[in-house]
Design brief:
Layout (H helix, E strand, L loop, with lengths): L5 E4 L6 E6 L3 E6 L5 E5 L4 E3 L4 E2 L6 E2 H11 L12 H11 L10 H17 L5 H62 L1
Helix pairs in contact: 2-3
Amino acid sequence: MNLTGIISISGKPGLYKVVAQAKNSVIVESLEDSKRIPAYATDRISALDDISIYTYGDDKPLKEIYADIFKKENGGPVLSHKEDIKKLTAYLAEILPDYDQERVYPSDIKKLFQWYNLLHKSGNLKIEEAETKSEEVAEVKETKEKKAPATKKAATAKKPAAAAAPKKTAAKTAGAAKATKTVQRKAGSN
């Protein structure tokens, strides 16, 4: 899951995607209705990339939890955040059995499911494995294409270097002749 550039603004419902930067704010676009609004430095902004869920062990990043839900639901939507909190906590316990029940509040669980459904509806939930495989294939093709022209360039680069070598010796010879003439003139003037 790639949640880069997707944020939550405290006091404003939904999720937003960072679009541009203005002088004193950041321009964000709502994932629900595509309306653009400014988000100021005084707003409490949270990047979804930085959010994690408390567990009894190490905290688990939100994108990993969403990847687990995505796999479990076969790419479909999950329970609505308006469902009974008992259903939501039971579902979260299936996905993340060791989440810290004392530190993860019911409002956090509701946000978790609401955000997942918003991301799913807007088309921002994608498995990275498929993306990385296609990127790896593209990189392999690019490296093959770059290697072929590079060998031709290397062969042509060697030829001018070899041709330039006699010019340097000729220049050295001409310089030596001038130096000899200068020495002869000085010797003749004495």
